[in-house]
Amino acid sequence: MTRQVYSDRWFAWTIAIIFIGAVEQYSIELDATYGGATAEVLTSAESQIPTDRITLRGSYSRFYKFPKQFFNESSVPTDQILKVTDAQYLSLRSMHNGLAPYTFTRIEYDKPVYGATTPTGIKVGDAAFPKLNGSHPRWEVMAHEGGHNFFGGTSSFYSTLATPYPFLQESFAVLSAFYTYHTIVQNQAQYGLTDTTIKSLRYDFKNGRAYQKQQYNLYISNGSRFDIKDVLTSQALDYKMIMLGEQYGWKKYKKFTKAFDSNIEPNFTFHKDGVSDIEQSTYVVAALGVAFGRDFRKDFKELNFPVDGTLYADVFQKIILYINR
Is 44 helix (H, G, I), strand (E, B) or coil? Predict the structure, then answer.
C-alpha cells in the first residue's frame, strides 16, 4: 500500500516475473457450503488447516488458509467477496490487455502486514480486516497489491523504469485499484454483484479517494517538492491520474499500460544507463498524453514534475507508433 514500507517489494516482483505462466489452473465450483463458497479438495499436506481457517476458491481468486474471522466480520457475504476478488483480477487483466502474472490470485493471510505481494498473488493482514473498516473488506488494499503484480509481474521494462523508488510503483498500484473499482461498478451485472456489495465498494473507495486527495493537497501545500523517493510525490501523481480517469474515461488506461509493455523497450535507449527522475517523470507524462490524446505537460509542470522536451517528443511518437501498430 501507499501507506506502508515498500523496500522489499521488488525482490518479490523479480520472483513474480520468473513465475509468470507457472501457476496451475484450478477448476471452480461454488455452492452454499460457506456463505456460497466451497472449501476446496486439498492434498494431504494442504489439508492441515487449523479449525479457525478456511480455504475458499472463486474462478480467478482463492483465499488460502484464511481466518474465518475475516468473513464473519464482513457485511458482504462470502460468495460476493469471492466475486469481487474475481472481478478485480479480471479488471486488472483487462487493463493490461490480456496480460497477467498468474492465472488466478492467491490471497494469503499474514498477520502483521496491511497488504503485500507474493509471486502468485497477495497477502492481507489483521490491519485490513473488515472490523476496522466499518465491516467492509479492504477492497482497495487487495486491488492495490494486485496492481503491483500486474505491472511488475508482466513487464521487465516497467521494472527497469520504476525500480527502486515509489514514484511509479505506488502511484500505478493506486491507479490499478481505482481502475478495478470503476470497471466493477460499471459492470455490476456482468460480475454478479448485489447492490449491497457495490455499496461496500463505494464506501471503501470513497474513503480511499479522500485520502489520496488529502495527500495531493499536502504535496502542494508543502511546496510541490518533486522527489521520486518520496511517497507523497507518488500520491500527487496517483490522484492526478484518478482525476484524469474520472474526467476522460477509465478505458483510456488500457492504452496507458501498453506504454510499459516489455515489447516496447527496444524502441528506447534512454534507460540503458539507468533511469533518472526527469526520465521517469517525462515518460509517464508522455504516456498519459498518448493514452488520453491530450498534452498534460503544463498540468504536471504546475506540480513541479520535470519534463524534458526532447525526450518527451521522442517517447510520445514512439508510444503512438507502438500502440497503433
Answer: coil
Is the pLDDT at 20 greater than 80? The verdict is no
Query: What are the strands, taking DSSP E only, across the chain?
Result: 53-57, 61-67, 105-109, 115-118, 121-124
pTM of the model: 0.86
Write out the E strands in 44-97.
53-57, 61-67
CA–CA separation, 110 and 122 (whole Å):
10
Structural domain that includes position 82: 9-155
Identify whether the C-beta of residue 289 lies closer than 8 Å to the C-beta of residue 316.
yes
What is the rounded CA–CA span in Å between residue 240 and residue 60?
Answer: 30
CB 226 within 8 A of CB 165: no
Q: Which of 139, 155, 171 is the last residue of a domain?
A: 155
How far is residue 247's CA from residue 209's CA, in Å, rounded to a whole number? 15
| 140 in the same domain as 168 | no
Grid cell for residue 107: 490471497
Place of cell 501507506: 3
How much is the average pLDDT of 276-291? 98
Residue type, 279: E
State the residue for C-alpha cell 491530450: 294
pLDDT of 56 above 60: yes
Q: Which pLDDT tens digit goes with each residue over 136-155?
A: 999 999 999 999 999 999 99
> CA triplet 135, 79, 177: central angle to 5 degrees?
65
